[in-house]
Amino acid sequence: MSNDDPYILRPGPPPVETYRRLRVTSGLSAMSTAAAEAGLPNTWHGVTVLCGDEPVGMGRIIGDGGCFLQIVDICVTPEHQGRGLGRRIMAELTGELERRAPAGAYVSLIADGDARFLYEKFGFRPTAPASIGMYRTV
Fold first, then answer.
1. Whole-model pTM?
2. Nearby residues of 28 by Cβ (< 8 Å), 6 or more positions away
3. pLDDT tens digit string along 91-124?
4. Which of 7, 29, 114, 126 counts the most CB atoms within 10 A of its CB?
C-alpha cells in the first residue's frame, strides 16, 4: 500500500446493514436482515475494504474451520472496481487460510463470470468434469 492509496483492509465482516448494502450495490443477491444477523457471526475470517470511512468491498470465509471452508461475499462497489481490490481481498483471505486452516482442508467458492480468472491466480481450479457445483435456496 502506498501513501496515496486510499484503501484500508480491516479484518472482520462489516455490520449487518453495510453487508446488505455492499451485496446489492455490487450486484450480488439481496440477503434479509435476519439472514445476515444469523450468518455474519459465523464468519471464520472476513475482511472489509474501506475508502476513508466508507465500506466499499468485502469478502468472507465460512465453514467448519477444519474440514471444509468456503469463500463467499467477494464484492466491490462499482465505482471502486478495477483498482485491484478483489485481488487484495483474495490475498487477505487466502493468506489467512494458509496461516490457520489445517492441512488438507477443502476450500471452495463459486466463481461468477470472469471472476474465475482472479480466483485461478490464487490456486483455485474448476471442479468439472470430476464434479459439478450444485445449489439450492430455501
1. 0.94
2. 73, 75
3. 999 999 999 999 999 999 999 889 999 999 999 9
4. 7
